[in-house]
Write a structure and sequence with these properties.
Layout: H1 10-13, E1 41-43, H2 50-59, E2 63-72, E3 75-78, H3 90-99, E4 103-109, H4 116-119, H5 123-137, E5 141-145, H6 154-170, E6 175-183, E7 186-187, H7 189-201, E8 207-212, H8 223-241, E9 250-254, E10 257-258, E11 264-265, H9 267-280, E12 284-285, H10 315-320, E13 336-342, E14 345-349, E15 353-364, E16 369-375, E17 381-386, E18 389-391, E19 395-402, E20 409-419, E21 422-433, E22 458-459, E23 464-466, E24 476-479, E25 489-494, E26 500-518, E27 522-539, E28 545-551, E29 559-566
Helix pairs in contact: 5-6, 6-7, 8-9
Keywords: Hydrolase, Signal
Organism: Streptomyces yokosukanensis
GO molecular function: hydrolase activity, acting on glycosyl bonds
């Protein structure tokens, strides 16, 4: 179930790097917020995620890159094959690190998989999939690790850049990195083409993160200087595409300890890279991986779990963490702030308005300017701030004005404060009421399957209505997955637009999923041999149309479902 570590493709790295040589720009301010200046990778699927907790609580690590989300058609899963937002292994690890003060970048792709834009050709599904990562994990930083043949896929690259353009427009403050293989002479020609694709799409890659590893240039390669050479060459290539790129838009990610090609990145090499980064204002330092930041016996299969060199546990973490406070581009100021709302919710009649106080506070470093914005408000609801920006430690008044035609319902509105150090968000729950009350129209048909037929449900494979395993009555739905299908059954319904609903259903069996897609996206799941009720809350969009679905999981046994309801 565990995803193997990523490694640069020898085939891809054998290509000659291209790009005209240009004069390097001086160091600039960081493209990423300072908390992300050191963000090593953590393989969330190799069984040693506990080292992340130790790095955060005992070694002052403030940010990390969680790897990897994999595209699977137009769906996304973690490396352990469980879906994003519903991974009982990965999600608690991310939540725990967050509770301990660590920020996370979510990375998609790697050597063993590809990001969604490479596995799905539908642009709207790609956009929705990446947005789901942002929503599920509350992140404002996404990383895309593209390796091997994927680097040369120009159609997928174009979809990727369009998705980033769309998401940046929808998510103020969102930043993304492209992690690419390099030689000591820089990016491959295909890597440079990815930079050109971003320019053609009208966007700028916030961090071009180079995999300074596995050069296959002989075991005597000096890996620290190799990383420096690769960084210098890559910036020249970046500036040949867009002169606005600086070292602040560059990330350096070595593979600590022994590399796949037999070379070794040592603690002395780490110091070489950190010195170069601080002197030139490099935007981000990372490494592969926190899971490997420990000594081991050097057995043939140990590279995914240790460095295979002499070191103390988390020695590379200790070596890179000081860059968090560097005055170079990546370190910048160590300032940070908090944001809160009081009250956090309000109930307003159609045509009315509500206010809340947005409070900010300095949590580290010095006070800084914080710009306020809101997202998620339905059509007909306007949200304003007075003032629209504050100095951290100050307050602003949020005013939500509700139009007379806004449908009754509860709407989560995300309030975001953005500063040089990064961004923080809080949710304002706005309930709109009307004189007539009610919950809006629309309902599920054949929710208990008591007629003995499927219609209007549609199912894949051999899923069917049965009478031998039921929750109530005389019939229920049997969902039959296969090796390449989840056995999904769907029903499309039209509900009231911009309204909050609760979908419930009784399920039994391994990895039973209940959810909605289309005009809203939400799901939950259980793994239980007994009947148990699942509940999914969601808010419809402007059309009110959603698809209700239930399915099992690839290669698992049958799931049964019964007694659905919408309220």
């Amino acid at each position: 179930m565990h995803l193997a570590r990523f490694a640069a493709s020898a085939c891809a790295l054998a290509l000659a790097a291209t790009g005209a040589a240009v004069a390097l720009a001086p160091a600039g301010s960081a493209a990423t917020s300072s908390v992300y200046s050191v963000a090593p990778y953590v393989d969330m699927s190799n069984g040693q995620e506990g080292m992340l907790d130790t790095a955060v609580t005992g070694h002052h690590l403030k940010a990390y890159t969680a790897a990897f989300v994999l595209g699977e058609g137009c769906n996304q899963i973690w490396g352990d094959t469980l879906p994003i937002g519903n991974d009982s292994y990965t999600d608690p690890e991310i939540a725990k690190a967050k509770s301990e003060g660590a920020s996370v970048i979510i990375s998609s792709g790697g050597a063993s998989g590809e990001p969604l834009a490479w596995t799905c050709s539908t642009q709207s599904s790609i956009d929705a999939g990446y947005q789901a990562i942002i929503n599920d994990y509350g992140v404002n930083q996404l990383d895309f690790d593209v390796e091997g043949a994927a680097v040369a896929d120009t159609a997928a690259t174009a979809r990727q850049m369009q998705a980033m353009k769309d998401l940046k427009a929808a998510n103020p403050g969102l930043q993304f990195s492209m992690t690419l293989p390099v030689l000591t002479s820089g990016l491959t020609g295909d890597g440079v083409n990815i930079l050109k694709a971003a320019k053609n799409a009208g966007i700028k890659i916030d961090v071009v993160n180079i995999m300074a590893m596995d050069y296959y240039a002989g075991t005597g390669t000096e890996m620290g200087q190799g990383a420096v050479s690769a960084a210098r060459a890559t910036l020249a290539q970046m500036q040949s595409v867009d002169s606005g790129y600086t070292y602040a838009n560059l990330g350096i990610t070595p593979m600590i300890g022994k590399n796949d090609d037999g070379s070794a990145f040592t603690l002395a090499d780490a110091q070489t890279v950190e010195d170069f980064a601080a002197q030139n204002g490099v935007g981000r330092l990372a490494f592969w991986s926190v899971n490997r930041d420990q000594p081991c016996s050097g057995s043939a299969n140990s590279l995914p779990t240790c460095s295979e060199i002499s070191q103390s546990s988390l020695a590379f973490t200790d070596a890179f963490v000081p860059f968090e406070g560097s005055t170079g581009g990546g370190g910048g100021s160590t300032g940070d702030f908090s944001l809160s709302l009081a009250p956090g919710s309000a109930s307003v009649a159609q045509g009315g308005s509500a206010t809340a106080t947005v409070s900010t506070a300095v949590t580290s470093g010095s006070a800084e300017s914080v710009s306020l914005s809101a997202s998620g408000a339905p059509s007909g609801v306007s949200v304003s701030f007075g003032p629209a920006s504050v100095t951290s430690g100050g307050t602003s008044t949020l005013t939500a004005t509700v139009g007379a035609s806004v449908a009754a319902g509860t709407y989560p509105i995300t309030v975001t404060g953005t500063a040089a150090s990064g961004s923080h968000s809080a949710t304002y729950s706005l309930t709109v009421t009307s004189g007539g009350g009610g919950t809006g129209g629309g309902s599920l048909t054949n929710a208990g399957f008591e007629g003995g037929g499927l219609s209007p449900w549609t199912c894949t494979g051999t899923s069917a209505v049965v009478g031998d395993t039921v929750h109530s009555g005389s019939h229920a739905l049997r969902i039959t997955p296969s090796a390449d299908s989840t056995g999904e059954c769907d029903q499309t319904v039209t509900l009231s637009p911009n309204h909050t609903y609760s979908l419930t259903g009784w399920v039994q069996g391994p990895y039973a999923y209940l959810g909605v897609s289309g005009g809203a996206t939400a799901s939950t799941w259980s793994n239980n041999t007994n009947w148990n009720q699942l509940t999914v809350d969601f808010t419809t969009g402007s059309s009110g149309t959603v698809t209700v679905y239930v399915h099992g999981w690839y290669g698992q046994s049958d799931v049964h479902a019964d007694d659905f309801a919408l309220g």
